[in-house]
Amino acid sequence: MPELPEVEVVKIFLEDKLLNQTITNLEILNKKSFIGDTKDVINQKIIKFSRIGKQLSIYLSNGKILLIHLKMTGQLILGNTMLGHPTKFDKYPNKSTRLIIKFSPSCQRGGQGEIYFNDQRKFGWVQVFSANALSRFQSNLGLDILDPKFTPDYLYNQLQRSSRPVKSVLLDQHFFAGIGNIYANDALFLSKIHPTTPSNKINRTTALKLHRALLSIMKQSILAGGSTMKDNKYIRPDGSSGNNQFFFRVYQRAGEPCLICKTKILRTVIAGRGTFFCPKCQLACNK
């Protein structure tokens, strides 16, 4: 699943290519992937891009907003790109393409004036919102990890609200917006926190370490273009892969030696998600 860094990379790329472009048409290939009235979108200029957590917002000149959630396998691919979902098709649209957004200057299918919304598992979506409706929709999200208001105190106070394993709380978008499985695993490793530690047992000193770790790995991943796994479920809009997967500390490294102490990395399951940790470096944290 694309997490905060991956969606931020997509935002930066599209902002550079599509800001002030006009949407000339929408071609809906899967009705469930688009929610709203196309009349609110067509012939509108893109005036702003923003992101909260894993959600990407495209602001239009008429005040409407296109909210995009890539979910598990969603991708936004610029036309004329020959990569994408791991299917046998190497051209777009293919069987995973759910929506085509066309821009000015107009061009034929497959050109640079189109963005393909691909989604192999059909969990992702694009929805039209008014500003007020979007505010209500996102009101249950925690602070974005890169929001200036995401301070060590905010992190600590949120952690105190639950006795669940800290790994589960980090993944809960009601507490923190943007953290996914990759970065929760590695941030806990950098903070030397065992993933099963009750969230409310994290003290302020440890919360400060976790705060630094979260910011560090998020910013590193953005600079590296995000994390592209072997399944290619995440790639950048130009079809290229991210490189952060080469810097994983514990994620997907079960059985390999810890980068610090050489103890074998272990894997367990917490809240249904694969969880990776070093049993020597990451000890349960008590007040």
TrEMBL record:
Residues 249-283 form the FPG-type domain. Keywords: DNA damage, DNA repair, DNA-binding, Glycosidase, Hydrolase, Lyase, Metal-binding, Multifunctional enzyme, Zinc, Zinc-finger. Monomer. One of its GO terms (molecular function) is class I DNA-(apurinic or apyrimidinic site) endonuclease activity. It comes from Candidatus Shapirobacteria bacterium CG_4_9_14_3_um_filter_36_12. It catalyses: Hydrolysis of DNA containing ring-opened 7-methylguanine residues, releasing 2,6-diamino-4-hydroxy-5-(N-methyl)formamidopyrimidine; 2'-deoxyribonucleotide-(2'-deoxyribose 5'-phosphate)-2'-deoxyribonucleotide-DNA = a 3'-end 2'-deoxyribonucleotide-(2,3-dehydro-2,3-deoxyribose 5'-phosphate)-DNA + a 5'-end 5'-phospho-2'-deoxyribonucleoside-DNA + H(+). GO terms for biological process: base-excision repair. Pfam families: Fapy_DNA_glyco, H2TH, zf-FPG_IleRS. This is DNA-formamidopyrimidine glycosylase. PANTHER family: FORMAMIDOPYRIMIDINE-DNA GLYCOSYLASE. The keyword Iron does not apply. Belongs to the FPG family. It comes from the Bacteria. Residues 2-124 form the Formamidopyrimidine-DNA glycosylase catalytic domain. PROSITE patterns: FPG_CAT (PS51068), ZF_FPG_1 (PS01242), ZF_FPG_2 (PS51066). Its cofactor is Zn(2+).
